[in-house]
Amino acid sequence: MNPALRDRILRKLDELPDDRGYQLLDYIEFLESKYAGKTAMSPNAFERFAEGVEDTLRAGKVSASTIAETMGLLNRAVGVLSGVAATGQKIATDALDAAARATGERKAATAPAGPPASPPAPPAAAEKAPAARAEPKGKGKP
Question: Where exactly are the structural domains of the chain?
């Protein structure tokens, strides 16, 4: 949707009472089910829960003002829970990074300090030659 059209729709929405807003939401969901070319972003678990509560209240014929108050409370709760979840994820990421660094430091401490020692020099040629066999006494050449 182009930004100018989106802004115009939002201005019109701000003027509507809540009960008309819910009617409009129903119509938009109907249009989406019939004609949407691409799927909308799927809400996270907290948003799905809040939308489920809202749909249940609407199906129970609860007044629009009561639904609006309830949704305001739920939206604040969702904001808090999202913040808690983000903080938990950050803590877990930091803990994994610290563990990886500690493991890397431990490996560096046990590794040899310098380059590997050069291999020993090969034995001299004289050492490789077989020893001369001693001839038994008395059986030599004349």
Answer: 1-39, 41-108
Both structure tokens of 46: 């907290």
pLDDT in tens, 91-125: 999 988 888 888 876 666 665 555 555 556 666 65
Q: What are the structure tokens assigned to 35, written together?
A: 């004609």
Nearest C-alpha neighbor of 46 from the set 84, 10, 11: 84
Give pTM, 2 decimals: 0.42
How far, in whole angstroms, is CA 140 from its chain's centroid? 89
CA distances from 23 to 19, 47, 48, 116, 125 (A): 7, 20, 19, 77, 100
